[in-house]
C-alpha cells in the first residue's frame, strides 16, 4: 500500500517547520525531507517568499530576520545565527596581511551576519573552487553574499571577474578592483589607496633629507603597480633621483638571497641613501644583509617597509606604511550588509515586509548604487628613517 501524498497546504506547513527548525534550509535538503522533487520545493518556496512567510537565500530559504526574533526561533543553545544572512569570505592567505582583514570583518559581522571563512591562494582556479564550495547547489552552505580577494591580472582573472559578477548574489571585492560585462562596469569594492601610501613614504624620505632613493617591490603582489605609481609620481614631483626600481621574488623564494644582494650592490653603485621595500619580511631581510656588509641603518641607508605587519620588531624598528587592514574587512561587511538591506544594528533596518532589501531607502538594498570605497593608509615613523646628516 502506497502512502498518500500530503496536500499542498500540509506540505508547505512541514516545509516551514523544517526551515524554522534549522534556521535556513537548502532546496536539496527540503526535497529529501519532504519526499518531493526539487521543482515542487522551489514552487512552494516561491509562494512562501511572495507572501512574506520565508525569505529567499541562494539555493534555499530561511525565516525572515524580524520573524525569527518575534517568534523566538533561536532556541537556547543555538549559535544565534538563525534568521541572519550568511556571508562567505575568501582570502588568498591566512597567515600574512589577511588575518587583520578577517578580524575586522568578523567584528563588523558580529550580531548582524554569520561569517564563513575559506582560505584560497593567488590562483584563479583555487579561488573559483572555494567560491563554488560556498555557493554551489550541492553541499554548500548557501551564502547570501560574498567577500572575495581574487586575482586581477591576466585573461583568467578577467574571466573570473565575469563569473563573480554573474553570480546570483552580491559580491564585494577586498583590496581588489575588477570590471565586468560589456560596458566594463565595476564590481563593488573596498581597497587601500596604495599609491597614496607609497607617495607618503617618498615625501617622508625627502623631508628626512634624502635625494637618491630606491624602490623594491614584489613581482607577485597585486599591489605592486599602485605602490610603484605613487612612489615614482611623488619622486618626480619632488625632484628625487630614483636610482633603483626593482621587482624581486618574495623572501620565501630560493632566489631571494641573490636578488637581495643585487639590491644592495645597486644601492652602493647608485648612491642610494634610502629605500622603500614592499613588504616587511623583505625589508627586514635587506636590513640584516646591509648590516652584515657594515652598512648602518639609518645612518648609511634608511629603510621604509610597506605593510607594517612585523616592521616594529626589526632592529632597528622600521618606519612603515600601514594599510587599514581591519577597516578593509569591516567596510566590506558594511557594504555587503547594506546591499542585502540590513542597515540597522539589529540586522533588520531596510527590509520590507517580504524580507526584500532596500524598501524606500536608497542607501540600502538591491537598487543601491555600486560603491567603490578607497581607504587611506598612514605612515608609522620609527628609528629606521632618522634625519640624514649632510655629508654623512
UniProtKB/TrEMBL annotation:
InterPro entries reported for this sequence: DeoR_HTH (IPR001034), LacI/GalR-like_sensor (IPR046335), Peripla_BP_I (IPR028082), Tscrpt_reg_HTH_DeoR_CS (IPR018356), WH-like_DNA-bd_sf (IPR036388), WH_DNA-bd_sf (IPR036390)
Keyword Membrane: no
Organism: Promicromonospora aerolata
Residue segments, region Disordered: 343-375
Start and end residues of each HTH deoR-type domain: 8-63
UniProt KW keywords: DNA-binding, Transcription, Transcription regulation
Compositionally biased intervals (Gly residues): 344-360
SUPFAM superfamilies: Periplasmic binding protein-like I, Winged helix' DNA-binding domain
Pfam assignment, any one: HTH_DeoR
Protein name: Substrate-binding domain-containing protein
Amino acid at each position: 500500500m502506497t502512502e498518500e501524498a500530503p496536500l499542498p497546504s500540509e506540505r508547505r506547513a512541514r516545509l516551514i517547520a523544517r526551515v524554522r527548525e534549522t534556521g535556513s534550509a537548502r532546496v536539496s535538503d527540503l526535497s529529501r525531507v519532504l519526499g518531493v522533487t526539487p521543482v515542487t520545493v522551489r514552487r512552494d518556496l516561491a509562494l512562501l517568499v511572495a507572501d512574506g512567510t520565508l525569505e529567499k537565500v541562494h539555493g534555499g530559504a530561511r525565516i525572515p530576520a524580524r520573524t525569527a526574533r518575534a517568534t523566538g526561533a533561536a532556541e537556547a543553545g543555538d549559535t544565534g545565527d538563525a534568521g541572519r544572512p550568511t556571508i562567505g569570505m575568501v582570502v588568498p592567505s591566512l597567515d600574512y596581511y589577511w588575518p587583520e582583514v578577517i578580524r575586522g570583518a568578523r567584528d563588523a559581522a558580529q550580531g548582524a551576519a554569520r561569517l564563513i571563512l575559506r582560505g584560497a591562494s593567488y590562483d584563479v582556479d583555487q579561488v573559483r573552487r572555494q567560491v563554488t564550495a560556498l555557493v554551489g547547489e550541492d553541499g554548500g552552505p548557501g551564502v547570501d553574499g560574498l567577500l572575495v580577494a581574487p586575482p586581477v591580472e591576466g585573461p583568467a582573472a578577467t574571466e573570473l571577474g565575469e563569473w563573480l559578477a554573474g553570480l546570483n548574489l552580491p559580491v564585494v571585492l577586498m583590496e581588489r578592483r575588477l570590471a565586468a560585462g560589456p560596458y566594463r562596469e565595476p564590481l563593488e569594492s573596498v581597497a587601500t589607496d596604495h599609491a597614496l601610501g607609497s607617495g607618503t613614504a617618498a615625501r617622508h624620505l625627502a623631508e628626512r633629507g634624502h635625494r637618491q632613493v630606491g624602490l623594491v617591490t614584489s613581482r607577485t603582489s597585486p599591489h605592486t603597480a599602485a605602490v610603484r605609481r605613487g612612489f615614482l609620481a611623488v619622486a618626480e614631483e619632488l625632484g628625487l633621483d630614483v636610482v633603483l626600481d626593482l621587482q624581486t621574488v618574495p623572501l620565501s623564494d630560493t632566489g631571494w638571497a641573490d636578488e637581495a644582494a643585487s639590491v644592495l650592490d645597486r644601492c652602493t653603485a647608485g648612491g642610494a641613501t634610502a629605500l622603500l621595500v614592499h613588504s616587511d619580511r623583505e625589508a627586514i631581510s635587506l636590513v640584516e644583509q646591509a648590516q652584515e656588509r657594515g652598512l648602518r641603518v639609518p645612518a648609511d641607508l634608511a629603510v621604509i617597509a610597506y605593510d607594517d605587519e612585523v616592521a616594529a620588531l626589526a632592529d632597528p624598528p622600521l618606519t612603515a606604511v600601514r594599510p587599514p587592514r581591519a577597516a578593509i574587512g569591516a567596510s566590506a561587511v558594511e557594504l555587503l550588509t547594506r546591499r542585502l538591506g540590513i542597515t540597522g544594528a539589529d540586522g533588520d533596518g531596510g527590509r520590507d515586509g517580504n524580507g526584500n532589501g532596500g524598501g524606500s531607502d536608497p542607501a540600502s538594498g538591491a537598487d543601491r548604487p555600486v560603491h567603490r570605497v578607497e581607504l587611506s593608509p598612514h605612515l608609522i615613523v620609527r628609528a629606521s628613517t632618522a634625519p640624514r646628516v649632510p655629508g654623512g
